[in-house]
Amino acid sequence: MGERVDKPASREDLLAAWRAAERDTIAARNAASVASLSLAAAEAADEAATSVEEAAHAAEQAAQRAREAAHQARRAAEHAAEAGRMAFASAEGNEARAGVEVEKAETAEAAARDAYHEGIAEE
To answer: Could you tell me which residues come within 8 angstroms of residue 17 by beta carbon, excluding any fewer than 6 positions away?
Structure first.
């Protein structure tokens, strides 16, 4: 059998090969550009995810602090209510004692008045 001998490429074949190589180069550059944009998008997404994670952590800490503050406020309100109850009981006792003192003063006044009248009548 005979060996195949490649004949030199024609001008049209060379031009077609060149144009095909140009298209391949453009496609490769576009693919590199898309890959670069994809990398930038992935970096931005990673940064955004990190920011969201940090925000979630901050929100969790804020919620914990709010719970602690609410607990402290509830304890303070309980103490204030207890102090109010004690003040009320003390005021009730003071009122009762004042009533007794008024009765004593009225009795003393009546006795003094009676003594005065008796003293005048004896004169």
So the answer is: 9
Q: Could you tell me if residue 27 is left (phi over 0), alpha (psi between -120 and 50 degrees) or otherwise beta?
A: alpha
**Cβ neighbours of residue 97 under 8 Å, at least 6 residues apart?**
none
Per-residue pLDDT reduced to its tens digit, 18-62: 999 999 999 999 999 999 999 999 999 999 999 999 999 999 999
Give the whole-angstrom CA distance, residue 41 versus residue 52. 16
pTM of the model: 0.49
Smallest Cα–Cα separation from 76: which of 64, 86, 65, 84? 84
Cβ atoms of 17 and 9 closer than 8 Å: yes
